[in-house]
Specification:
Blueprint lengths: L7 E7 L3 H12 L4 E4 L14 E3 H7 L8 E5 L1 E5 L5 E5 L5 E4 L1 H14 L3 E3 L3 E8 L2 E8 L2 E12 L7 H4 L11 E10 L8 E5 L9 E6 L4 E9 L6 H10 L8 E11 L8 E2 L2 E3 L16 H20 L4 H4 L1 H24 L4 H10 L2 H9 L4 H11 L4 H11 L1
Helix pairs in contact: 1-3, 1-6, 2-6, 6-8
The protein binds flavin-adenine dinucleotide.
The site of flavin-adenine dinucleotide has 41 residues, from α1, β3, β9, β12 and β16.
Length: about 400
């Protein structure tokens, strides 16, 4: 076996999640040496994810649906207000897929290794420092500490990220900008259209969030919830309560339990420092409205890989050289996410009655534009004067956020 501590790696990526693996692929493509290490014993396991990925991200990332890991085509979505009123959109063609994330990540890992990357599991980074322009990381494996060296580190170590902090970049999540996620993979359930994503809203159902059913195979789905991390009652409490009220779901069997935090909006103004880039959940690259972080964050991982390759060519790993990463990410996605954060703040102010009113009166197109913060002048005129005119409080909130 290759002795991973015997050389100075061009890049060490900490975290073999989708983001770390995708960053590794980009670096390996450029024939630079890259080590991807992870504390877990198995790639993709346990998943902390509902596994939904829209076709838009398949296209942006150059991924082709593959029956081994994109197991359930999704043709649209249904959004439910607290009283059951719904907005539905169903297309003939698939709009995205539910992944089997374990298989997806293994697929990415195999691609990375084919291109020349090295991956090692059960390696926990416990400390990191700079020494003569090189990063030295103490890594625990098999009960022993070994030192691994790199010219550049990409921290893709997820929401609990400590590696960037070890190297002087503050990536701490504000509690107010963190959601608490809890999910069961359930089987033997029924009563929902398996071609759609199902999202349930309401302040008593999921405060500052929603409950989801993301269908996987026949009678099997990820049934989960995301709520504000500061809520007094836990995400599990709300999810169990809701499941108990759903005839087709309550008698199903739980075959997996997943839990995790989701960074939904405290974007990092600075995502690099000397010898370090941070990407994925570690860099808070998550959509603030729905908490999705596979696609956006993989795009961030790819960008981090590309910037690393430029730094290697220039033999310059300074903060100044690497700062193009933060600038490019904001130009690419960060500013769009900031707009969506504004929409999330709007959603946080809605009451149960507002959710029901909107579910009964607006179209999916309008719902998506509200979420994206992309209502045009004509959309606003139609929405404000025709639909919200009878609900002055809701109108005031909308005008405040979208004037
Ligand atoms: C309940 C829930 C549902 C979700 N559903 C969706 C969804 O449907 N669609 C979507 O797009 N997104 C979803 N997300 C978000 C998505 O899962 C994350 O955004 C995504 O996993 C981020 O990938 P990542 O590679 O940045 O981090 P991770 O996948 O968390 O990978 C980080 C890796 O770093 C490793 N690591 C951490 N510290 C160290 C260390 N010190 N040393 C070595 N290794 C370390 C960890 O073991 C881990 O493998 C969901 C999240 C949750 C919690």
């Amino acid at each position: 076996m290759e002795d991973i501590k015997s050389k100075v790696w061009d890049v060490v990526v900490v975290g073999a999640g989708p983001v770390g693996l995708y960053a590794g692929i980009e670096i390996a493509k450029a024939k630079s040496s890259v080590l991807i290490l992870d504390r877990k014993q198995e790639i993709g396991c346990p998943k902390r994810c509902a596994e939904g990925l829209s076709l838009r991200w398949f296209n942006i990332l150059g991924l082709k649906p593959n029956p081994e890991w994109s197991i359930q085509p999704i043709h649209g979505a249904a959004l439910y207000g607290p009283s059951g009123k719904q907005i539905k959109m169903k297309n003939k063609e698939p709009q995205g897929y539910i992944l089997e994330r374990k298989m997806f990540e293994k697929h990415l890992a195999i691609e990375a290794v084919k291109l020349g990357a090295k991956i090692t599991m059960k390696h926990l980074v416990v400390s990191a420092k700079r020494e003569n322009g090189i990063v030295e990381m103490n890594v625990e494996a098999d009960g022993k500490i070994q030192t691994i060296k790199a010219k550049l580190v990409i921290a893709c170590d997820g929401i609990d990220s400590l590696v960037a902090r070890m190297l002087g970049l503050n990536t701490k999540n504000n509690l107010n900008d963190t959601d608490s996620g809890y999910q069961y993979e359930m089987t033997g359930i029924s009563g929902y259209d398996e071609n759609l994503l199902h999202l349930y809203f309401g302040v008593d159902i999921a405060p500052r969030g929603y409950i989801w059913i993301f269908p996987k195979r026949e009678g099997t789905a990820n049934v989960g919830i995301g709520i504000g991390a500061y809520e007094e009652k836990t995400a599990k409490f709300y999810l169990d309560k809701w499941i108990a009220s759903q005839p087709g779901v309550k008698d199903g069997s739980i075959i997996e339990v997943n839990a995790g935090g989701i960074p939904v909006g405290g974007f990092l103004e600075k995502m690099e420092t000397d010898n370090l880039l941070v990407a994925g959940d570690a860099g808070h690259m998550v959509d603030p409205i729905h908490g999705g972080g596979i696609g956006i964050a993989m795009e961030g991982g790819r960008l981090a890989g590309a910037v690393a390759v430029k730094a290697l060519k220039a033999k310059d790993f300074s903060d100044k050289m690497l700062s193009t990463y933060t600038k490019e990410w904001y130009a690419l996605r960060g500013n769009e996410l900031k707009r969506r954060l504004k929409s999330r703040h709007l959603l946080e102010q809605l009451t149960n009655e507002d959710f029901d009113y909107l579910a009964g009166s607006i179209s999916m197109d309008e719902a998506l534009k509200i979420g994206n913060g992309t209502l045009t002048k004509t959309d606003k005129f139609a929405l404000f004067t025709k639909k919200l005119v009878t609900r002055p409080k809701l109108l005031k909130i909308m005008v405040k956020y979208f004037q």
